[in-house]
Amino acid sequence: MNQQEKTLNHLPLNTKGIIKKINCTGTIRRRLLDLGFVEGTSITPVLISPSQDPRAFSIRGTLIAIRKEDANLISIH
Hints:
- By secondary structure, the chain is an alpha+beta fold.
- The chain contains two helices and six strands; from the N terminus they run E-E-H-E-E-E-H-E.
- Strand 3 (about 40-50) and strand 4 (about 55-60) form a beta hairpin.
- The two termini are about 15 Å apart.
């Protein structure tokens, strides 16, 4: 991932993005894919916890909360 790629962490609340790439391997990649974080999928951040981590995203008709470090692995456009 280059420095100019936008990640899920940078998407403002209630702004739709499209998943471009999952930038990890192993079990975390499998977990994200199982939750629906698949290339080409529309995603919208809808809630941020008071501590700013985790964030909740609307994806494929459901609400999923993931940690900031995991959201940083997901490139969007």
